[in-house]
Design brief:
This protein has 362 residues and is α/β, with parallel strands linked by helices. The protein has a domain of 107 residues. The chain has 16 helices and eleven strands. Helix 14 links the parallel strand 8 and strand 9. The protein is globular and about 55 Å long. The mean pLDDT is 96.
């Protein structure tokens, strides 16, 4: 079982009008169902998940009554969902997308799509000219459903090196590849249940046991890259296709990962880094040039594609904050460390305990 909790890193002020619209949208979540067409598409295009999973998902319904949402005395938004983990994890992306869209609606923001496409054209020209491979990762913090669809429609027609989208609905509609990587909560669960020293190693081992070589991009920064690289075994380094860099200095990360591969006797040019830390295309190109001839690279770009509208996007996340193995076990707090200063998630007490356990400095 687990609880996913909402965090607004900018401590945004929300209104009662916003809250009412959000509650209404949450109520409508119960009407969402997987259609027969979507089931057939996913069972073919996500072969690493058995058809029985999609059969189950077709019977799944969101339960609004499980979502606790309120504004505190400072008008900060609090939202959490508690359920069995295989169900609770499904709430994160739609809730974040809804919050972002309703916030824009409540502020009566109107997008100039001509300007959005004009900026998008420049980004795609840069990608095409430099063979810059990227995936669209922008659902969670998109400006709106409509903006994301127009962006993906443009990518389909013009972006030669767009490898896919993390939005499975748009992947199906526009016949592009559904893409994704490791989630932080997988490692956070292992840390809470089995200890921080063993979390990365056990999480990767169990991932391989389930997916048998598919989905081979490991996420490095749940308990800092230091801890990940120290835990990484030669077997895992050979088995996984590469690593995702989601926080910290991308250039330092590249150097350290290459060095680790070389220590294992592995040719770094056979491996790939997926960079996904709040990127724009100019930064991605800079990183690509740095990696050239040393290690492969690709990019997951989100907000810069689906919310580059002239308005400041929300800086929001939902993370696993507690878990337990069964109904009889006590709750364990889940935390996340980050290679970016100020992005640790969890109570000060537990974060300090984790840092001490891993012999890291704060």
């Amino acid at each position: 079982m687990g609880t996913f909790s909402f965090t607004d890193r900018d401590d945004t002020i929300y209104t009662e009008f916003f809250l009412a619209k959000l509650k209404n949208a949450i109520e409508h979540l119960s009407q969402i169902v997987l259609t027969p067409e979507e089931l057939e598409y996913m069972s073919v295009h996500c072969r690493f998940l058995p058809r029985v999973y999609w059969e189950w998902l077709s019977s799944f319904h969101f339960q609004p009554e499980k979502i606790k949402v309120q504004l505190d005395e400072n008008s900060h938004l609090h939202l959490e969902i508690t359920d069995y983990l295989y169900k609770a994890t499904l709430y994160e992306v739609p809730l974040l997308a809804i919050i972002s869209e309703i916030k824009n609606e409540s502020l009566q923001r109107i997008v100039n799509m001509d300007l959005v496409i004009q900026k998008l054209t420049q980004k795609i020209e840069l990608s095409n000219a430099n063979r810059l491979s990227f995936s669209e990762f922008g659902t969670r913090r998109r400006f709106s459903f409509e903006v994301q669809e127009k962006v993906i429609n443009y990518l389909k027609g013009h972006a030669h090196y767009c490898t896919g989208t993390s939005n499975c609905y748009f992947a199906m509609k526009y016949n592009i590849k559904p893409m994704g990587t490791h989630p932080h909560e997988w490692f956070m669960f292992h840390g809470a249940q089995f200890g921080y020293k063993h979390a990365n190693y056990m999480a990767l081992e169990n991932w391989v046991n389930v997916y048998d070589g598919d989905l081979g991009t490991a996420l490095a920064d749940t308990y800092t890259t230091d801890a990940f690289l120290n835990n990484l075994s030669r077997k895992q380094a050979k088995l996984f296709d590469g690593v995702r860099c989601d926080s910290g200095d991308e250039f330092d990360f590249t150097n350290r990962l290459i060095e680790r591969y070389q220590e294992f006797g592995i040719d770094p040019t056979t491996k790939t880094i997926i960079f996904s830390n709040a990127l724009d295309f100019n930064k991605a190109l800079e990183i690509q040039k740095y990696c050239a001839g040393r290690i492969r690279c690709a990019f997951g770009i989100g907000t810069n594609l689906t919310n580059d509208t002239g308005f400041k996007p929300l800086n929001i996340v939902m993370k696993l904050t507690r878990c337990k193995m069964n109904t009889h076990q006590k709750w364990h707090e889940c935390i996340k460390l980050s290679d970016d200063e100020g992005k640790h998630l969890g109570s000060i007490t537990e974060v300090q305990a984790c840092l001490h356990d891993l012999q890291l400095t704060n």
